[in-house]
Amino acid sequence: MDAEQLREYGHKMVDFIADYYKTIESFPVLSQVQPGYLRDLLPDSAPNQPDSFQHVLDDVQAKILPGVTHWQSPNYFAYYPSNSSVAGFLGEMLSAGLNIVGFSWITSPAATELEMIVLDWLAKMLKLPEDFLSAGQGGGVIQGTASEAVLVVLLAARDKVLRRVGKDALEKLVVYASDQTHSALQKACQIAGIHPENCRLLKANSSTNYALSPELLSETISHDLTTGLIPFFLCATVGTTSSTAVDPLLSLGKIAKSNGMWFHVDAAYAGSACVCPEFRHYMDGVEEADSFNMNAHKWFLTNFDCSALWVKDRSALVQALSTNPEFLKNKASQANMVVDYKDWQVPLGRRFRSLKLWMVLRLYGLENLQCYIRNHIKLAKHFENLVVQDPRFEVVTPRIFSLVCFRLLPPNDKDHGNKLNRELLDAVNSTGNVFISHTVLSDIYVLRFAVGAPLTEEKHVNAAWKVLQDKATSLLGESFC
Ligand code: PLP
């Protein structure tokens, strides 16, 4: 590492990135390249001799940026957001600069201790029960993604129940969630060896706004118990991926508890909103949970990746995931005086991710973060009003946070409108002026408009709506208007 070279190139790189942000609206939001485009533009093998930094930057501009979908564009409304911010970026930069690998406390005490402190701070902002704080038996840990979070708690829960009922009972273990739960749970079950036929994805429909019904859960558990199966894990969601449905945590949690099950709450997207007192009630019942997860990298100004997971009983994680090879032994770990986060996650190595969350919390503060969330929700409400005012469209599910699920109504009753809306999505996204995504709810193809990019303002929402209206007009034909 040549410090002076870093200074020179680093300044140039920051200039390059700052210019990128200044001109971000000049790029098509959704990359318009065809599969394989880059093979034709880059050589077959790496250079033998060093290239110049400027040459590389020129290639980024000419060859890489056309293949980038601009998640930070103010015209990005697809999936859920993946925020970047000055604070998050600086934290990421500092983490890259120090480049430690903090698997055990001894490998960088500050990395472990800052992570514990920052997750306690965030837990307090979310008003999580005290059991989730690091002072007791619980605590927080930063995982890479919500998928890793649900995997590690599923492994902890699996091993906990198998210790009770015996190792041979694996094939009897049953997992419950609604069919709106993120596919990360299904993947976790595959990895954890849960038999596919024992994953109960219970149907949720418009009668509950796509939330999991406690009655249906109870009935299913009772039936499974009568056939000798062992219910052991329930995953509820606050803010489902398709439509931001909120599962009723309190009643679901009580059912889980009375059946001795682990109760995990996935608030990957909507958890951020719960730092605002007026949205905190969506988490009511989290007292019943064994684990809670929110992605600070989605809608909380913290650059990817930073998925915050809290557990009430950290020993369950450690028992499932710890190893203690000779080459990692050290006095602090052996004396049980410290947290070694390697035992709370799948990989050994881990980055100093708490730096960026710490920067975000310190450089913005709770009040600004709350305003940030409220502003996006206000913009989503504004978009929802625009949709409601145009009789050609309908809002499909009630908006709760910053996602609007809507569709263009088919011109006649016989057609369910799925093809029409698929065509509308393609037409809108191929303009490059806006990027939205879709889902399917009760067999209906639905368009999703998720507000959450840090640079989005009302003018961007209005412009996106204009593109949608214009493309709808072309598809339906002038006569329909
Ligand atoms: N859970 C919910 C509710 C989500 O919306 C998502 C992604 O959008 C995930 C889990 C998966 O997130 P990750 O990419 O962090 O694994």
What's a quick, concise take on this entry?
The chain has 14 helices and 11 strands. With 481 residues, the chain is of the alpha/beta class.
List the helices and strands and how they pair.
Elements: H1 3-22, H2 53-64, H3 86-98, H4 109-125, E1 139-143, H5 146-165, E2 173-178, H6 184-192, E3 199-202, H7 214-226, E4 230-237, H8 249-258, E5 262-266, E6 291-295, H9 296-299, E7 307-311, H10 314-321, H11 331-334, H12 354-389, E8 393-395, E9 403-408, H13 418-429, E10 437-441, E11 444-450, H14 458-476
Parallel strand pairs: 2-3, 2-4, 4-5, 5-6
Antiparallel strand pairs: 1-7, 6-7, 8-9, 9-11, 10-11
Helix pairs in contact: 3-12, 4-12, 5-6, 5-10, 12-14, 13-14
Bound molecules: pyridoxal-5'-phosphate (PLP).
Task: Provide an overview of this structure.
By secondary structure, the protein is of the alpha/beta class. The chain has 14 helices and 11 strands. Strands 1-7-6-5-4-2-3 form a 7-stranded mixed beta sheet, sandwiched between helices. The protein has a 4-stranded antiparallel beta sheet with strand order 8-9-11-10. α3 packs antiparallel against α12, α12 crosses α14 and α13 packs across α14. It is globular and about 65 Å long. The mean pLDDT is 97. Pyridoxal-5'-phosphate binds next to α5.
Which structural class fits the helix and strand makeup?
A: alpha/beta
> How would a textbook summarize the main sheet?
7 strands, mixed
Shape: globular
Number of helices: 14
Measured by DSSP, the beta-strand proportion falls in: 5-15%
Could you state the order of secondary-structure elements as H and E? HHHHEHEHEHEHEEHEHHHEEHEEH
Low-confidence stretches: none
Cofactors and ligands present?
pyridoxal-5'-phosphate
Strand order in the largest sheet: 1-7-6-5-4-2-3
**Count of extended strands:** 11
The end-to-end distance, rounded to whole angstroms, is 64 Å
